[in-house]
Amino acid sequence: MLRLLGPSAPGSAFCDGISRRGLLNIGTLTALGTAGGWSLPSILQAAENAGQGRSAKSVIMIYLVGGPPHQDMFDLKPEAPKEFAGPWKPIHTNVPGMDICEAFPQLAQMGDKLTIIRSLVGNQADHDAIQVFNGRHPKLPKPSGGWPQFGSLVSRVLGPITPASPPFVSLCYQCSHGPYNEPGPGFLGTAHAPFRPMGSTREDMVLNGVTLDRLQDRRALLRSVDQLRRDIDASMTMAGMDVFTEQAMGLLTSSRLAEALDLSREDPATVARYGTGNPNVFIDDNGAPRVPQSMLAARRLIEAGVRVVTLNYSKWDWHGGSYNTIFNREKEDFPIFDRCLSALISDLHERGMADDCAVIVWGEFGRTPKISDIVGRDHWPQVNCAVMAGGGMRHGQVIGATDRIAGEAIARPVTFGEVYATLFQHLGIPVSSTTITDNTGRPQYLVEDGGKPMPELV
């Protein structure tokens, strides 16, 4: 909780009654820090490198935790033997030749607003979210500090759109299985870690028991202390910090971010359209909660000026049990997913946001073509699928194809680097010429293996 009226010990209070300890809490604004150490002044330093962002382009990234079964969702093989095809049947979308699972009737009605990538290759084989969030294979060499995730790179290159909103917000729930979680800002450091407005942190985004006038008084006091610190800092490392703190105060005194996360301000009909879930129920204990309202919150955050929003949704790793175990779970998850994802895409179009906001939905790998009575569909790195929407891209198409059992890509293999290059280009960041300096002073490109934007989409 942010406490501007800290307790005063004898001899430790200033003339306005604020304690030195309370002042330091204001000065660093660490009360708003996340578990990863993010603080408002440091994350706002992104603006110094590229100036205040003026583009409203944005990305919502949805991670389906645990690896969704591509051949039961968006790449069905009804002519394959039963042990490969499973019980689901394909249905037509509103785009001729684009068929998806019968459990997704609402998505089928908007096939013209979707792109299905059926040939995503180069997947890693373990339950590890790294590649989903930064596009880099976790087994390959990495620079000191590790690769930054996508939102952190965007924060570093573009900075915030407005001081009232951070450039990168994560709505991902912390999973007990560590590899399911976001990898973090890597060598960019905590200044470009995502803001995580989950749990009690949300309470820190408003002024609790403090008027704006009193906050302004403390800001003047903070300036005096900062000037003193600069005077005694021979290296001048404090130079410019007041600029970032000024922006941080702007975020603190604005209700924009807090209101975006307050779904009670949304039209109840819209909330009902997405559906709701219990954020305290983690699927299979170590997955993420099945919370459709996260997609609504993501849209509201984009409207509030956030560039990148990431979220994790449910758990898609259905190991063990009989042949029917995996399909019983699909019957449970698929209709809810169909409802909330279609609501998000429709919402973006209805609000005139679809050209500016791109959506990417994927997991860490595909699933085995053959269904096992012991493990259902196991891990399958040979091929994966992804769904994209929005971003002003050319949708209403399927990119790539797999063989008759959905086991290998046989046409137009797509890499993670290509998908990420497409997202960067959508944001106005040229991947061929943009580099970020790592901790050793070496320039690093934004995507792996020289990936280029997908010509089918842009």
Structural overview:
There is one protein chain. The chain is α/β, with parallel strands linked by helices. It folds into two domains: 1-32 and 211-254, no CATH class; 52-206 and 255-450, 3-Layer(aba) Sandwich (Alkaline Phosphatase, subunit A). The chain contains 15 helices and 15 strands. The strands form five sheets. It has a seven-stranded mixed beta sheet, sandwiched between helices. It has a two-stranded antiparallel sheet with strand order 2-3. Strands 8-9 form a two-stranded antiparallel ribbon. It starts with 19 loop residues before the first helix and ends in a 13-residue tail after the last strand. Residues 1-55 and 234-244 have low confidence and may be disordered. This is DUF1501 domain-containing protein.
What are its keywords?
458 residues; alpha/beta; Alkaline Phosphatase, subunit A; 2 domains; two-stranded antiparallel sheet; 15 helices; 31% helix; globular; TAT_signal; Alkaline_phosphatase_core_sf; DUF1501 domain-containing protein
